[in-house]
Amino acid sequence: MKIIKKIILSLLLLIFLIPSINYAYIFLSPKIKIWHPGETIIQYSNSEYEVFHNSKNSKYLNLEEIDSQKIKYLIGLEDQNFYNHHGVDYKRVTKSLIDNVLSQKIVSGGSTITQQLARILFLDNSKTITRKYKEYNYAKRLENSLTKNQILEAYINNVFFGKNLYGLEEASEYYYSKEAKYLNDSEIISLFAMLKSPNTFYPGSDKFKDNYLNSIYYLYDRNIIEIDKYYELYRNIPIPVINEKDDSSFYSIDVLNREAQNKNISSKLIGKTINTTINLSIQKKIKEIINQTKDISSKENLAVIVLEPSTGACLSLIGSSNNNDSFNRAIDGVTQLGSTAKPLLYLSALENGFTPLTPLKSAPTVFYIENVGEYAPQNATGKYANKNINMIEAISVSDNIYATKTNLLLGSNTISDKLKIIGINDVNDNVTNGLGSFSLSPLTITSIYNAIANRGIYHKPYFVKSIEENNKKIYTHKNDSGIRLFEKQKSIIMSYMLLSPYDKALTTYTTPTMINYVPNYRFAVKTGSTDSSSLVMGFNPNFTIGIYVGTDDNSQEYDKTLAKKLFVKIANMLMENKKDVFYETPNLKAFTLTNIETGEKSFTYYR
């Protein structure tokens, strides 16, 4: 009996003690200071800088610029008890739980404006108990630190409005082509009404009108507007006037936020100064090239990455050709490598006794693979040499038979073992790996080519040099010696062999893959393709360029030459006013190849 009493007393003590400790933590924690909430300074590597509010450099909106009646619309729709609670509305939370249980699905949420602001400023959108607990604590701390008006001001400058838009000012300029202070009642209500599901109820969407009409009824039902105002708003459904803006910086902000989170930098980048590797001038020029080269009505999308070989620093990253597309294909997209996997295979072959002149027969072949059965790869063009070709020729025309024979001679684990060196462990051993049947992100593929460009040393791509807060550095990137992925000399040999896709003299049973797309400066290059995508990877000692073009629905309706066109233009832009440099080859003897049929001589390799 005594034991039971002790257990009960202990439980009661815990029930009262834990909340007490938590409240003490909240009230004793330092005040949260928000100066121009959402302001972030990005210092680019080319000495340019931008001051951002949220994701873009939009104007900061002071609360007094918005009529107080219009702010009442926000409170009426999002948080009716805003002025009466201390960060958490317990009645609303209880009602929300009951509604959700009775409906057996989530039909309402209990987050206050303060809780939403806490999530926006300090947390992510994961639906976990831990995140909700942190949200609760941050909301309480915000209420202890800021006035209600300061919380509202921070909220309207940071809340998400869909289409990569953050903050009321940015949403107003995009959806209605005017500053927020000039929005009429119906327009501003339509923007506040979309906050519960921005990607569903944005102005112009299929569900926009119904959501707007429901929202003005809620405002009437909750005594925020009178019946006459309700009918006025009902008769004047707002018509969006979309103002498209080019945004070269969005994907920069995206990757900087990710890296900060990966490095456990406190919360997000808001209120900090970030010194980034991104070169804004390069980023803008690449966007211009994309806009000039890509047919605006075409179906394909794309990603472009530029890395610095010696460090892994990312100089430019674009995740979409669409300014309003938040999906970052450079990082989050995955694509089969196709023939861009072949240099990985051939580097391993060079490290295991092959030479650039090792002969293998290119002819239609049926292979019998143990535990697999028959395997009959084909060349994309359906053409074959029907005789021995060397590795340089195989790279030039992207011969699949040569690659398959090489993979079988070395073993189906050749590429997967190489990738494990840099922490890629989910590529299975497969005879088709040499033809690029496995998938990686465009950024990862580019980083592997960056290792070849860096004479075999791999550096993980990075975007942040340092982060400052309150004039103190809270993070500095530490340069390391990298990981030896390929042998130095073999990487240099491969770099020269990857000039062969431009080499006219290697036109035999088919043509070199880049024969019509030759930049003005020397860039090693390799192409790859599937039915729905194309890749071009190219590099020299200064830059590594990765380009992905493809369709999101895996259809074949896309411009198969676009990646090549972009590569040539971007390569020429990057090297403008720079000396044409390539790799020194003190221990390699220069040579040329001669086309037996035409007598034409190839490039001089190793010069």
Structure characteristics:
18 strands; 607 residues; five-stranded antiparallel beta sheet; alpha+beta; 13% strand; five-stranded mixed beta sheet
What is the element layout, followed by pairings?
Elements (H helix, E strand, L loop, with lengths): L1 H27 L10 E5 L5 E5 L14 H11 L11 H14 L9 H10 L6 H17 L2 H11 L9 H8 L9 H9 L4 H4 L6 H14 L5 H9 L14 H13 L10 E4 L3 H14 L7 E7 L6 E5 L16 E2 L5 H10 L8 E3 L4 E3 L3 E3 L11 E3 L1 H7 L2 H11 L3 H7 L18 E2 L1 H12 L3 E2 L5 E6 L2 E5 L6 E2 L3 H10 L26 E6 L3 E7 L4 E7 L11 H14 L32
Parallel strand pairs: 1-3
Antiparallel strand pairs: 1-2, 3-13, 4-5, 4-18, 6-11, 7-10, 8-9, 12-15, 13-14, 16-17, 17-18
Structural class, judged by helices and strands?
alpha+beta
Largest sheet: 5 strands, mixed
Name the poorly predicted regions. none
What is the number of beta strands? 18
- CA radius of gyration is 29 Å
Mean pLDDT: 87
> Count of helices?
20
Strand order of the largest sheet: 2-1-3-13-14
Distance between the termini: 92 Å
